[in-house]
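Protocol step 4 of 5: obtain the predicted structure for the target chain.
Materials: sequence only (see below). No template structures provided, no constraints applied. The aim of this step is simply to have a reference model before the mutagenesis design in step 5. Sequence pasted as it appears in the construct record:
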Amino acid sequence: MTVLVDTPIRTRPFADPCFIGGRERELLLDVLESCRWSGFRAGTHGRDAREICSMTSAEARKLAPAEIRFLGGPYVRTLEAEMAARTGSAYGVACNSATSGLVMALGAIGLRPGDEVLVPCMSFHATATAVVALQGVPVFAEVDPRTFCIDPIDSEEKITERTRAILVVHLGGVPADMDAIEELARRRGLSVIEDCAQAPGARHRGREVGSIGAAGVFSLTENKSITCGEGGIVVTDDPRIAMKCRLIRNHGEGTAEESWNDEELENVVGMNFRLTELQAAIGVAQLEQLEERNRVRNDNARYLIERLRPMPDLVPQRLEEDCDPAWFMLKFRYRPSPGMPSRDELVRLLEAEGIPAVAGYPRLLHESPLFTRRPSPRVICPRSEAINREFVWLPFIHPPNTREDMEDAVKAIEKVLG
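Step 4 output (structure tokens):
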């Protein structure tokens, strides 16, 4: 008796998001042969630290390769200047990860032990643990059911006299409602920090994310839109924030003088969050490709959304008005009709068809034991928990995957959902 085996739609893997697409080899070899693989020194060698740390990134880029090594080498300074220019900011401060960048930015706004920071309950856990690193208290807010970004209304309800900042996440490359967040922050006297790890190049009403709040933090880790393996960049227009970020990054207590006031000394601790020249060279080459990489991501995402529109059970992440995404991962809410597979069954069926799919977060931030067991408010976010139970993520929209690859995903979804 012959047994017929169902042939999966796709048998070859999708391409990884980390790939060489430009001058990576050329610039990396330049650093390698220079034998200046870091470029950093911890001291300012008699130069005034306030002056050095307040220098704009465009000015720092013009320094000679070995000049003022407290600010890093030429590729670090080039990467910082180009990201600052792209976002319309005066300062870029590179670091070894976006997690470090969040710690730097929170430290730079003067976060103190016991201060509360509003954080969306739906994000990678570093968004919240960066607050804990400075002995602050993350207070978790619901997310908007359309954009999956922090909900300004729920955020305001959770503000107390101890609230100091709002940490916004542009989840999946979709900008949050920055008009409402900025208005809330102005009215309640709060700082806004943007977690742009998944969103370099996204725009809110013509402004690139990261340039809207007091500071924006980008990721350069391996699965992000552009990467140098590990890394991050903080951008800001505020010279005080830039100065403090540079001090926190590079053993800033060694540059402190007796004349500094308490505010200048606050959070200046001996961290080493420095990015190497080897990483920065790759980052420069990747940043040159950001526009094209985002174009492919957005084209692939739009194609999938349009092709899957006839399937009412799949509801894609939505955009605020006058926003341009930089899609990182395509997120759908799956609401199965009677007789349709459950969310977890759908993910398993797609995987069997050769289509990677993710069933949302294993748990949301406020559900982590780190926060449920800490002596801090136990914040329940039932709406976001319900959304997470509906999530189906498609993580393969990045280049060099093409429209033909997206069509395989469409065929598989049509096959398993009938």
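Step 4 remarks: The first strand starts at residue 91 and ends at 95. Residues 291-417 form a domain with the Aspartate Aminotransferase, domain 1 fold (CATH 3.90.1150.10).
Proceed to step 5.
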